[in-house]
Amino acid sequence: MRARLRLPMLTVSYRTPVRTFSLSHHLNAANQIYSSVRQPDNFHTYQLLSSSSRTPLITLWTTSWCSTCHVVAPLIKSAIESGVGEAEGGVGYCEVEYDAPDVMSSSLGMDFMITSIPTLFSFDAGEAQISTKITDGRKLADRSFLEEWIRNEARRHGGRGGGGGGPGILGGLFGSWK
User: Fold this and answer.
1) What are phi and psi of 134, to 5 degrees?
2) How do strand 92-97 and strand 57-62 relate by DSSP bridges?
3) Which of 14, 104, 128, 158 fits 54 for a cystine, CB–CB 3.0-4.6 Å?
């Protein structure tokens, strides 16, 4: 005959924390500042990181000989480091050294119609935002203008929009002109 062991009934009660699951973008994301781009592969990696985090990638296209770039680059980086755009969803930022040998020998600048240095240019979900591209050095040196521009770009948070070409046949095919 088998002996039965009787144990007192043990009841364990605990509360599991309520966790929510959301596919929507979490606002107040921290801005991300990447190293300068000297090779096209780095640029494409930053685009992918930006797309996966649903934050726009802000790029400043510079050259080593551009005096305006030496004024504008620290101003833009300072604004992003200080948190401009984080309340709207955050941004990624990198400088593209357009005169770096690997960048110059690639078609990277031509792909995005970089015709002036410096150029401030945004990408959202990997899509170039042609309509918000800034090439005017006076605007780029105006901190309040830059902060508003960064906030507007951050508001996209992976939703695209505002990109596409200019007026004309190709602009009509690839997006609307604002």
Assistant:
1) -120, 130
2) parallel
3) 158
3-state secondary structure of 92: strand
How many angstroms separate the CA atoms of 123 and 153, rounded? 9
CA end-to-end span of the chain: 88
pLDDT tens track for 142-177: 999 999 999 999 998 766 554 444 443 444 444 433
Q: Which single residue is written with the structure tokens 């105006």? A: 142
Each residue of 78-114: pLDDT tens digit? 999 999 999 999 999 999 999 999 999 999 999 999 9
Q: Which residues of 8-46 are buried (b: 16+ CB within 10 A; e: fewer)?
A: eeeeeeeeeeeeeeeeeeeeebebbebeebbebebbeeb
Residue of 141, 121, 123, 117 lying closest to 133 (CA atoms): 121
Return the structure tokens found at 168.
Answer: 């004309």
- Joined together, the tokens standing for residue 68 give 């305006």
> Nearest-5° angle of CA 45, CA 49, CA 50?
115
Interatomic CA distance for residues 144 and 13, integer angstroms: 56
Query: How many helices (H) and strands (E) are present in the chain, helices listed first?
Result: 7, 5
Q: Which two tokens stand for residue 43?
A: 């640029």
What kind of fold does domain 32-163 have according to CATH? Glutaredoxin (3.40.30)
- Give the DSSP H/E element, type plus range, for residue 5: none
Give the residue from 110, 8, 129 showing the smallest Cα distance to 58.
129
